[in-house]
Write a structure and sequence with these properties.
This protein has 4 helices and 10 strands, in the order βββαββαβαββββα. The strands form 2 sheets. Strands 1, 2, 3, 4, 5, 6, 7 and 8 form an 8-stranded mixed β-sheet that branches. A two-stranded antiparallel ribbon has the order 9-10.
């Protein structure tokens, strides 16, 4: 398949993370970063999410307000990616926002941290409507594809969905957790992920962190 040419303005830079669930167990796969780009794709107007690797973000330091261009492919399996396009080449920044601009209130659109920072901070569940309406441009927001192994004894039984999370300060005025999540298990059992899970994930951080 021939690659598609994109160019446009970066509207969001967020971590690109896949979440695996197996009843009450979780694991994360840190894929890189997701860029929301408003511009054109093969000369047609478009607003698309593009996935890049950790090394590409470290090299270019993309942030909201930059203009970029490159070539990409549609993702092979949309169930496993938070983006629509990836395998980017000829990536470059055509105009750069001032890197010293710091955002002191939400949504935080200054330079996103390294993936290790997200891992260390931990996340809380985030209401999907709040994510779409308030947090889609914030560096602390994240929409993850979720792969659920329903039965350990039959690992081929998988379910897929998307979940939204917040890595940001606990005192963010936009934050809404949304409903507790349910994870299907073997024999029709269901794990109900209660509030203490989020509290445990972020208990090492203060309210303003």
């Amino acid at each position: 398949m021939d690659k598609m040419i994109f160019e446009g303005l970066v509207r969001s830079v967020q971590p690109r993370i896949r979440l695996g669930r197996s009843f009450d167990q979780t694991h994360h796969n840190y894929l890189g970063f997701a860029l929301l780009v408003e511009g054109s794709l093969d000369e047609a107007p478009s607003v698309i999410w593009i996935g890049i690797g950790k090394a590409a973000q470290a090299k270019h330091l993309f942030q909201v307000g930059d203009s970029i261009s490159g070539e990409c492919l549609p993702v092979a399996d949309a169930r496993l990616e938070p983006v629509g396009y990836y395998k980017v080449s000829k990536l470059k920044k055509t105009w750069e926002r001032n890197l010293h601009t710091i955002r002191v209130y939400p949504p935080w659109t200054d330079l996103a941290p390294e993936l290790e920072t997200y891992r260390a901070r931990g996340h809380r569940r985030l209401d999907a409507r709040t994510y779409k309406g308030k947090c889609i441009t914030c560096k602390w927001g994240c929409r993850m594809p979720v792969e659920i192994m329903v039965d350990h004894w039959n690992p081929g039984i998988l379910q897929y969905r998307f979940e939204t999370f917040c890595y940001g300060p606990k005192n963010c005025p936009f934050y809404k957790p949304g409903p507790n999540r349910k994870v299907p298990g073997r024999g029709g059992s269901v794990f109900y992920e209660e509030d203490w899970v989020d509290e445990e994930n972020t208990r090492h951080r203060g309210k303003a962190e």
